[in-house]
Structures are given as structure tokens and as C-alpha cells.
Amino acid sequence: MCKKFLSIFNVLHRTHVTYLKSEQKKVLYELYKKEIPKISEHKEYSDIIKLQKHSQILYSLNEELDIYKQLLKEITYSKDSYEERLKKNEDINHLNCHIENVSNLIIDDIILFYKSYVNQDHHLDATEIKMEITAGVGGFEAKMFSKELFHMYENFCKVRNYDYEMKEMINDEAKENKNIVLYIRGNNIYEDFYQENGIHRVQRVPINSNKVQTSTSVVFICDEKKQKDNIMKKINFSKHDLIVQTKRSGGAGGQSVNKNETCVKILHKPTNIFVQVQKTSSQIHNKNLAMQLLKDKLYNFYYELEKNNFLKDKKNQKQSVDRSHKIRTYNFLHDVIIDHITNTQYSGIQNFFKGHMLIQLINKKKQLFYQNIIDQTLQYIFALMDCQKGPLDTLSQNK
Q: Which Enzyme Commission number(s) are listed (predicted)?
């Protein structure tokens, strides 16, 4: 049944960062069997039809594969085991190759649909991210740990051939790093680092102590270009958001002091942020300076607001929700690292800091990242079709 489709996908073997789970395939098979009414106001319609057709091809290929497997099971004269016959059979290998290619094509369809309709504010096409590593609880030990995390990500970038640049390293009186800012560039960079967002915890005995101390550092990742665009929309305020007042400038005295109202004060009502400028003798010039100063203050306000609230936006990550939103624990006492998102454990902290093991972990986390995108998109499609039950229950139970 599927042979007429094979020439379409007779291409080089393709790989993908993730795969279709069996539950997701079942949902796709349900999708292809649905008669989708053409609703003119839904621009998503043509893309759903495309996904439906590819799902039908995948279903047909899997049906044919099942037939071949059943035939191999019925062979009794071969000395090879069933598993060996599966590996040696060229038709089955050929079908498996096509199934993987079609599956990857469907994943591409779903990701494109996600970016176009489900979440247009996505960061999947970002080629640069900003990383901030900030010392948290633990004083001097936390600052030392922040520096170690910086070197870990530096090694990761070297192994992955990512360009990186340290823009800022803010020191305090203890002469250790309080805040480190990195810019990292590469294709699809955001998906590599997104799930590093959060609290990294270290447990070890400090040099000047005999007791185990727990310290933390916070890693904050953002797509600064898109973030700037979003913030600029927020600070593109109307005149109704402002209260502008003028008054006479203060001075040391003289013939013309306090005669003209050149001092300008502007209040932004939504945030209650205000600025006051009296730098020049021109009210117009002072007002322009005040407006620019207000925009700068609002930008910093919204940036810090997003930074402080980013932990609340972790509902799509496959991790247990706890008070601290821990990403990883680095236990030097037992020389192990526990990743709380994937529930995996790694031995050898210093080796982990070299970057290669972090690549393995991030690749695993990227699978979870894209699995969530696939689930969200399929749920969106069925919700759009007013099919709230059935296959959606399967997805929600496996989250």
C-alpha cells in the first residue's frame, strides 16, 4: 500500500534531535483518520492537512512493516533467530529507513506549526543567547562556584565550537565573581541552554571549615534580541501613561534663577517610576533627556522583572516542582552530579566540568524539550478541531 509513497522519501538518511513516541504516533494516526472541516478563518488548516497526509504515510509504512515482521516470524527453516532475521532483511531495513525519514519530516512539520501558531514568541531560531551566572546563597563559596560554572560552560562552548564572549564580570569587595555575563553564538543555541535556567547547587566542605556547606548559583538564559523587542513594545507608552510636571530649577542664585520652569519631572503611571531632569536651561531639552532616562529605567525594570520571574515559566520542563527549582546538585563529598530535570546521575565532577559529559546531558534534555513541543502542538491541533478527549488523554498521562 505504501510503495507509491516511497519514491517521495527516497532520500539520504536523516537524523533528528528527538523522536516520535508511540503515544504520539497513535495521536497522529487518529489525526489522519479525522475528517477535518475546511474553516476559512483558520489559516492553520492547510498545515494540518499536510501533517495529516504525512501521518497517513507513516501509518501505511508501519502497517507494511508489521506484515513483513509477521512473515519472518512464520519462517521455520532458517537457522537464524527472529532478531537476526530482522537485522538481515533488506526490505525491513529499507522500510525502517523510510519510517525514520517520514517521522523526522513529521517532527519538522510539528515544530514549524508550533513556531507559526502555537507559540509565535518562541526562541527556537535564536543564534545568540545571553547567559548570566549570579552567586546566590553561600557567600564566598557561592562566588567561587559561579566561576566554576563559567569555566564549565566555557569548555562546553569550545567542544561544541560555539563562539562566546564574556561581556561583564562584576566583582565585589571579596575580589571574587558576583555576576558573570556571557554572550554565546551558534545555530539553534537557545535549545541547548534553555534548560540550564535555574538554581545550581553545590555541596562541599569549604577550605576554612570542617562542615559541609550548601551554596547556590543562579543561571539565567535569555534571547536578548527578542527580549529587547518585547520590552520595547512595553515601553512604547502613550501620553495617557505619563504625568509630566515642570517646575523652576534650583540654583545658587543670580539674576535669572528660578524665573523659568525648566526642571522636568515625568511619572510613568503603570509602574510608578519617575525621573527628574534639570541639566540645561531649556525645558524642551530637559524633557527629551527625561523621556530617554525614563525609557532606560523602564527597560531595566522590565528586564529585572523577567529575570526574577523566569523560574515561574518552567511548567513545560519535565521536572518535579519544588521550592528551589533546582537544576543540578554538585556533591563534591561523593563526587557526583545529580540532574533534577532528567533524574540522572553522573560520577566525576571535574570530568563533568570539561564539557563532554555536559553535551550528553544537554542532548538528553533537548529530547525532553522537543517532546514537550510535540505534545503541546498536537494538543493545540485537536483543541482547534474541538476534539478535547480521546488521544489527548494519552499525551497528558505521559507527561
A: 3.1.1.29
